[in-house]
TrEMBL record:
SUPFAM superfamilies: FAD/NAD(P)-binding domain
GO MF entries: flavin adenine dinucleotide binding; monooxygenase activity
Protein name from the UniProt record: MSMEG_0569 family flavin-dependent oxidoreductase
Organism: Sulfitobacter sabulilitoris
Gene3D superfamilies xref list: FAD/NAD(P)-binding domain
Pfam families per UniProt: Pyr_redox_3
Keyword Oxidoreductase recorded: yes
InterPro entries per record: Auxin_biosynth/cation_transpt, CHP04046_FMN-dependent, FAD/NAD-bd_sf
PANTHER family named among the record's database cross-references: FLAVIN-BINDING MONOOXYGENASE-LIKE PROTEIN (AFU_ORTHOLOGUE AFUA_4G09220), FLAVIN-CONTAINING MONOOXYGENASE
Origin organism lineage: Bacteria, Pseudomonadati, Pseudomonadota, Alphaproteobacteria, Rhodobacterales
Keyword tags: Oxidoreductase
Oxidoreductase found in the keyword field: yes
């Protein structure tokens, strides 16, 4: 929709093909208590910034939907809903965009399908006793959806820790398999840590300026929460309150679940990231001579006495598994040479070497904000301007597919 906004401004004929209803993912693929983890002021869709009365707060699901719907209604996008693209292929210099509702032709194609198509579950998940239901985070809506008994949440990215907290608040018995995801402070030295990072120019750093761009692209997002005004999540404090934690899940066989002995290492890695962000902010405050309140030094309030390597789910009363280990994109329909050996788009700021193919909405497409409300407008403007500049004035009214 951001791309469409700028294409409309440039007078470029185009169509937006949406597989479901508009904003389906926000409406149907988020759990009930979902909220932003970045402050509302970072919502900066094209010429449609957040205009509410709580810029430092965190919009909940219904407010997010109202925000994106308001953006959609702010201009007349040529949106076609309920259209599934099944093939994109270049034939005689023109792209054929085949759909379940007919064939389109296009001089340019912007792929804005994101990177969250296929939920990830490990191959060994198929060996788990079928009497233990396995749910993916994409299907989680509320604690009551989870079968009675103990739920093992696997993964500690943003979804995993927030769903674990959601069920804990509801009084459900939860256990957690802790992965290597990093964590972030929430409020530090007088304001939200993301406010400090923005002020420091961290969000303006491009992927090309990163020491190892491929490693940066593959990093998991730092976990924290915007729930109830926002707070950080320290898993060690949950352990003090009774949360049973394990290391990464390594294998499953029947009712047996095996773990790597990496619980403490993963907790330490998350804390290293947490402390690193605090240190960056501290250094910035000193360097700029900013008067900011002091904070107590970080301390580890808990550490595991032992690493549990195997459990029997039946004995432990574990009646369900909630997988929160991410997604993969699906480009099976894209028959254009623009992906690397791992199936990832090859591009520079969304522009591919293959003429006429563009990407938008991917994490680190250009900066940290590329896959978020903060940076998508800038990326969309860049892609739309590139298309406009490549077209001769007399041929701007062409058919493009977004």
């Amino acid at each position: 929709m951001s791309a469409s906004y700028y294409l409309c401004q440039s007078g470029i004929d185009h169509v937006v093909l949406e597989r479901y209803k508009r904003f389906h993912a926000w409406k149907e693929d988020r759990w009930d208590s979902f909220c932003l983890v970045t402050p509302n002021w970072q919502c900066k869709l094209p010429d449609f910034p957040y205009r509410g009365d709580d810029p430092t707060g965190f919009m909940v699901k219904d407010e997010i939907i109202a925000y994106v719907e308001g953006f959609c209604e702010s201009f007349n996008a040529p949106l076609r809903e309920g259209v599934t693209v099944t093939r994109v292929e270049k034939v005689n210099g023109i792209f054929e965009v085949d759909t379940d509702q007919g064939l389109w032709s296009a001089d340019n194609v912007i792929i804005a399908s994101g990177g969250y198509d296929r939920p990830i579950t490990p191959p060994f998940a198929s060996k788990l006793d079928p009497s233990i239901p396995q749910i993916h985070s994409k299907s989680y809506r509320r604690p009551s959806d989870i079968p009675n008994g103990t739920c093992l949440v696997v993964g500690t990215g943003q979804s995993g820790v927030q769903m674990m907290e959601d069920m804990t608040i509801a009084g459900r018995d939860v256990r957690l398999a802790v992965g290597p995801a990093p964590r972030s402070p929430r409020w530090y030295r007088g304001k939200d840590a993301t406010d400090w990072l923005h002020q420091m120019g961290y969000y303006d750093i491009t992927i090309a300026q990163q020491p190892d761009p491929k490693t940066t692209e593959a990093k998991t997002n730092h976990y924290m929460s915007g729930r109830d005004g926002g707070h950080e999540i320290d898993l060690r404090r949950f352990a003090l309150e009774g949360l049973q934690m394990y290391g990464s899940v390594a294998d499953m066989d029947g009712t047996k679940i095996r773990f790597l002995p990496d619980l403490e290492r993963n907790l330490d890695a998350a804390d290293k990231s947490y402390v690193g962000i605090r240190t960056m902010i501290d250094d910035f405050i000193v360097r700029e001579g900013i008067d900011a309140p002091l904070e107590r030094p970080f301390e580890k309030v808990w550490r595991p006495d032992t690493e549990i390597k195997e459990i029997d789910a039946a004995v432990e009363g574990i009646t369900s598994i909630l997988w929160c280990i991410g997604f993969r994109p699906n480009y099976d329909w894209l028959q254009v040479d623009c992906l690397d050996a791992r199936g990832r788009p090859i591009h520079t700021r969304g522009i591919c070497d293959e003429d006429g193919i563009f990407f938008l909405g991917l994490g680190w497409l250009h900066t940290w904000g590329s896959g978020r409300f903060l940076g998508v407008a800038e990326d969309a403007a860049h892609v739309a301007n590139t298309i406009a500049n490549q077209l001769k004035p007399a041929t701007k009214r062409i058919k493009s597919a977004v």
